[in-house]
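The methods section describes the discrete structure representation at length, but only in general terms. What matters is that the chain and its backbone geometry are given together, residue for residue. For illustration, here is how one protein appears when written out as sequence plus structure tokens:
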Amino acid sequence: MDSSNSKPAAEVAQDVSPMFKIYEDGRVERLIGNEIVPPSFDPKKSVDSKDVVIAVSVDHRRAPENPVPCAHEDSWAALKWVASHADGQGPEDWLNHYTDFERVFIYGDSAGGNIAHHMVMRLPREILDGFNVVGIVLAHTYFWGKEPVGDETTDAETRASIEKMWRAACPGTSGCDDPLINPFVGSSLANLRCKKVQVHVAEKDLMRDRGWFYYEKLKESGWGGEAEIVESKGEPHIFYLLSPTCDSVVAMRKKIASFFNEI
């Protein structure tokens, strides 16, 4: 077969394995995180979930195809859309009839935990009456910083690889002390607009000490709410996606369910 006219394969411009690869032609190969959980109904727990198609979606645009802060802006737009139902007159009847907008919880893991934090910090602006975020759950949250905290790794190569991933996701960033990745820069945690926070960390996660640092700084900030932290021993980052039925996941789910039900 004559292959004289075939184009050579594009070279890898940035290899941010095991997350994604960016090629010189602009193509992004996402290596993990492509699975989507469909909506479902559990009759034993009377829990119903539904996908809603609107102008925006919590299934936000993802970096590096759409650089940070696109995901934050998409999530904020979705949060405002949900809040527009607080008076019972929103465009989605399912939310109008079944949602208690006085008891709203936000959950996020990894990069989603980062977004969840920023959404709650931003709540005083443009939010509607009757929409009350009482608590957030932050699991294995993707925070970082230029200087190590706690027992965080000081290995130069490891820290450089994390910064490389961040710069690939947010090309316009000032670095790892950008407030979008380092919540201790540019604002006070005392401004967090909810009354309860549950932080989850994993013993073998590179982000573990950031979670502990967030928890400690939140308590010291004068915030005035209640915070708790839960550590999963012997587990890596987002282990609950890798082994969703293991004992550690069951324990974590019970902690989160208790957090929701106690408020």
The chain has seven helices and nine strands. The two ends are 69 Å apart (CA to CA).
